[in-house]
Amino acid sequence: MDQLIKDNMKLEERLRVGFFLLGKTRYSLGTHAVSALQLPTEDCEVEHLAHVITTPAILEGCAGDITYHTVEAKFEDPVVQVNGEQSEAGEEYNNRYSDDGVSQEGLRKRLPHATGNNEEETEVCKCEYEDGENKVQGSSKQKDKSTPNVLNRDPIRWFSALPPSTLRQAQKDFKAAVSLVAGCATTQLKLRAANKEFRRLHEIKSKLDRVEKET
Q: Could you tell me which residues belong to the region Disordered (predicted)?
């Protein structure tokens, strides 16, 4: 019971700090930046990164069948590597945030700077543009062959591409709260098993007392 009370107090503190940090994030980014509008709809396929694992256990001092289950929260790594045909999302992410996209845009902006009055100048600009574009394509192909595509599935990116420190800390607090909930569930299951075992032993003792009185 003491352990359950301590875990509940820690859970309450974690949730309080997490919601307070969410309030600070909404104050800095805007009221609509962190809200239910950023959550995926029911039609979207979202892969869960948190799983609940239950393991059968036997109560201490109790021999026999399984008496309760331990509950544990497991969090998967949101950053995964994808290869082959399954890398469409990873390629889209890389094209959006990699340096190659910036360099390609920079090369494309070089051609309009030509004045157009001198044909030789225009031809030189075109050659530089084509050579630079070919270099960028070659470097991107080499990069694709050497490094696998990376896909970030972190739910915190639903709210901001560059999440502030308050939102990241709130995510850590809520993850710790999930782990504490699993710990509280384990303690409650253990208490129920102990109570059930106590009632069983109490019935046996009552039967023995009745037998002794009758004899």
A: 85-121
Give the angle 8-13-15 at the CA atoms, nearest 5°.
Answer: 95
Non-local (6+) Cβ contacts of 138 within 8 A are none
Residue 133 token pair:
């574009």
Question: What gap in Å lies between CA 66 and CA 58, rounded to an integer?
Answer: 5
CA 53 to chain CA mean position, Å: 16
Tokens of 178: 């999930």
pTM to 2 decimals?
0.64
pLDDT reading at 199 higher than 80: yes
Are 175 and 103 in contact by the 8 Å Cβ rule? The answer is no
Partners of 149 in the β-ladder:
82
Half-sphere exposure of 64 (CA within 13 A, CB side): 7
14 neighbors 173 (Cβ within 8 angstroms):
yes
pLDDT on residue 3? 92
User: Average pLDDT of 68-94?
Assistant: 71
Contact between 25 and 173 under an 8 Å Cβ cutoff? The reply is: no
* H and E: helices and strands count for the chain: 5, 4
